Each structure stands twice: as structure tokens, then as C-alpha cells.
Amino acid sequence: MAVAGLLFGCRKIVPDGLETASDAGLAGPGIKAFEDEVRLAMSHTRGPMDLVRVNAPGKTTSATSDNRFGMAIDLDACDGCGKCILACIKENNIPLVSDEEASRGRFMHWIEMRGGIPMMCAHCGEAPCEKVCPTGAANHTPDGISAMMYKRCTGSRFCGANCPVKARKFNFNDAQKLGLARRFNKGVPLREKGVMEKCSLCLHRLQDDRLRFKTESFGEWRGRGVKTACAEGCPRNAIVFGNWLDSESPLVKATSGRQLYAPRELAGLDPSVVFLMGKR
Fold first, then answer.
1. By CB atoms within 10 Å of each CB, which of 59, 158, 169, 279 scores lowest?
2. How does pLDDT run across 39-72, given as a tens digit for each residue?
3. 113 DSSP β-pair partners
């Protein structure tokens, strides 16, 4: 509690430099404020997850492409440093929360630590969140990603209530008006008050790579070479992103011969994000 109090007292919602000169009109909280909030969030970590064995994800019944993107988190390598959280925040312009929400342990982070293990949306093949969305804002892409169309989201929060692991976050505040938002990445829009947010598997990076591939290459696009921000920011290479349906994907190669796990609540929902333990 003393550590949490110290970190809470260190929150500074002031600019301390811009990413580039062209961002002058997009100034917001300094990076230190986000770093402090990550440390505070980690002091509020939830208890350990109940992980059970699962099979490697395959092609889903609703898939219309030969791609299915996902990740594997190697628990034999992960040390719970939290750098994946900060990388995700900067890549996706995730806002800070108010001091009141922070004191309650309620953050907007798309990745959070549970028992010292990074946890995010698992992009389930049978995603229960998508089935209850009244507007189709929560939807499944042909490449197996559980995506959000923010302009369609009316804030019903049905999707959040139907997620077994509560991986979705509701944007209660107008973060821009409150000075809690910063656009680190100009390629990702800031979200408005009243929408649900969650891990997108850095969908924008995949979209950019698909467009590049169309203009520079021939053949079938498989998303090779793309990494999520969390995988890129992990100093121990514990997070591997890739295509479950591509035998040449680093994800398939990294998980070959390894035991795969998922939270018990998600095991029957065909998750695309899994955990690794055991034989390498």
C-alpha cells in the first residue's frame, strides 16, 4: 500500500516534451505520467489466472481468409516487467484515467497484469462479446481478429459484461477535455467518451503491411514480419505475434512442441492469444 501511495502521488499530468515538432498541436501529458500510471496499475495487480491446456488455434468456422492472427506469451521468459503495457499505451494512444479512478484500480490499459502475467483480449474464435453487441461495433475480421468499430459503439457495455475475463475497458471520461490523452501515434485515432476499448492486435499495423504488400509483392499476404507493439517492446522476447495458419510464421515456429494454455474461462472459446510453458 505504501508503494501504491508513493506512485499515486507521483502522477503528473503535465507535458514534458513532444515526440516531434509536428506534434505541437497534439501536446498532452508527459511520458512520465504514463510510466507512473503503469507502475501504479501493476501495484493493483489481480490474483493469478487459472490456466488450462488448450489446442493450437486453427481456422474458425466463420473465417473467410487463410489467415488467423494471434499471439503466444512465453511464461518461462516473461518476468512481468510491464514494458509491454507502456508499449501498448504509446502505440494505441491509451489515455490516463482520473486520480479517482486510479485510486480504485480502474485503468484504461488494454494489457494488465494478473498474477504477474500480462493479460489482454484473447481474440476468441467464438467471441461471446461480439454475439451481444447490438450495433455490430464488436465484430470479427476475416483474419480472425476481434475488432472494434468505434463509430458504431453506443456504449451499451453488453460486450464488456459478456467477456468472461473482463478484458474490455469502458471510456467513462472525455480524456482529451480533461487533459488525460496524448496522441503518441498519429496513425491511431483518439477515442471518444462512451465507447468500449480493448486490444486490437495492432490491427493498423497489419492493414499497413497488407497495403504495402499489394504494391510491392506478389502472391498471398500472410502478415509475415509484422509485430504488435507489445511484442516489439518486450525486452525478453516473451511475446510472439504471428499467423496461426502459416507454417512459416514465427508464432507457429515458436509454439511448435510447446504446451499451450489459456484461462479456464476462455478455454472453450477458441482463443487466439495463448500462453506457453514447458519444453522448448
1. 279
2. 999 998 788 899 999 999 998 766 678 999 999 9
3. 118
| Cell numbers standing for residue 99 | 486520480
Q: What pTM value is reported for the model?
A: 0.89
Q: How far is CA 240 from the centre of its chain?
A: 13
Structure-derived torsion over alpha carbons of residues 35, 181, 46, 80, reported in degrees to the nearest 10? -30
CA distance 146 to 126: 10
Per the CB < 8 A criterion, the answer to whether 264 and 52 are in contact is: yes
- Return d(Cα 201, Cα 73) in angstroms, integer: 13
SS3 37: helix
276 closest CA partner among 49, 71, 113, 74: 74
Q: Where are the alpha helices (DSSP H) in 127-186?
A: 128-131, 158-162
CA-based nearest residue to 192, from 178, 169, 175, 168: 175
Pairwise CA distance, residues 66 & 64, whole Å: 7
